[in-house]
Amino acid sequence: MDFSASPQTLEVLARKRRYLVTGAAGFIGSNILEALLDTDNEVVGLDDLSSGRRENLEQVQRSAGPAWRKFKFIEGDIRNLDVCHAACKNVDVVLHLAARGSVPSSIGAPLISNEVNVGGSLNMMVAARDAGVERFVFSSSCSVYGDQPDEVKVESKVGRQLSPYAVSKYAVELYARNFADVYNLHTVILRYFNVFGPRQLLSGPDAAVIPIWIASMIQNKPCLINGSGTTSRDFCYVDDVVQANVLASSPETAGAKGEAFNVCMGQSTSLTALFDILRSKLAPHFPHLENYAPEYGEGRTGDITHSRGSLEKAAALLGFQPSHSLEQGLDKALPWFIESLSEKRSLPLDRVPIT
User: Fold this and answer.
1) 165 given a catalytic annotation
2) Phi, psi (rounded to 5 degrees) for 295
3) Whether residue 220 sits in one domain with residue 147
């Protein structure tokens, strides 16, 4: 495994604890799983495979080699409290990533977003409380900032959420703080900004902008920019999300109990600039991109216009510092995207298999 980790992160990983990773077959979850197994930790993975993929687990298995024997997989739904109790048994740390993701999906189906994200997460916290786990790390989202107008988002200032997905994440944050106060469960909340990297969904309604655009460019399909292109995002490489989860699980982070932290790079990039960066990096491999230009459409309902996170709190209380800039992360991730898509360029974009 090629995982970039700070000395502090490696020190936490060296403690050899038993982790539960919910959503272990997903994009971020499988990257966390790989890092934990690579450092000889025991891991229980829980996933209902509704959006997570067995292929992700198979890739981790090939990478982990003999360490795979320290992994136990439970195929189950976090909406089932009995499943959550079984998964939390004898676990030291819960890294809770399982969710029904994406803003558009939640707008189309708010009930299922609430059932999974709020009800399922509450089940997980109850099960973690009952099992006496040391740490419960919840994966939230920068979408909770909503219409908060400040250019740089700080954890203490949250606006009105703009989608059912954002509402569901914020509701779980409130539960996490409450469980810290009422039940003394050591919860930590991580607000992810725009995460990218290997094993990310390449197509479909839940796919993010970077993999969608890479797929469009490689396949010479239209690349759509929602809005004027001035919309900006704070793009965070997946290795840094792995590090944030590990650091949040550390016994030394007593001051983080019940607190929320941005997980981001701390810099924003406009969509037009992102398009130019991706095209310049892919053009040497795909000559048809020399004169390739984007198409512009309407902005998406529920989207935040500008998103950049402050790193101050995460640095002070978790010791978190991002290890990759956007371009460094893309340099590391692009070989995976190219390998996954190059052999499928003749397929329509919506038929590209997820690998």
Assistant:
1) yes
2) -110, 150
3) no
Q: Which of 39-43, 116-120, 222-226, 331-335 has the lowest mean pLDDT?
A: 222-226
Residue ranges making up the domain that contains 216: 209-232+269-305+325-351
Q: Which parts of 209-326 are beta strand (E)?
A: 224-226, 232-233, 235-237, 259-263, 269-270, 295-297
Q: What is the mean pLDDT of residues 323-328?
A: 95
Residue 270: φ, ψ to 5°: -70, 160
Give burial (CB, 10 Å; 0-12/13-18/19+) of 65: exposed
- CB burial readout 325-354, b (16+ within 10 A) else e: ebeebbebbbeebbebbeebeeeebeebeb
Q: What is the CATH number of the domain that holds 135?
A: 3.40.50.720
Total domains, the chain: 2
Residue 123 lies in a domain: yes
> Of 19, 145, 165, 237, which one is the catalytic site residue?
165
Instruction: Report the 10 Å Cβ neighbour count for 296.
Output: 14
Residue pair 31/198 in contact (Cβ under 8 Å)? The answer is yes
CA dist 247 and 320 (Å) reads 7
Distance CA 245, CA 170 (A): 18
Question: Domain of 329: which CATH number?
Answer: 3.90.25.10
345 pLDDT higher than 60: no
Alpha-helical (H) ranges within 19-132 are 27-38, 54-64, 81-88, 103-108, 110-114, 121-131
Confidence (pLDDT) at 91: 98
Q: Are 112 and 170 in contact (CB under 8 A)?
A: no
Q: What is the pLDDT of residues 244-258, one digit of tens each?
A: 999 999 988 889 999
Instruction: Report if residue 311 sits inside a domain.
Output: no
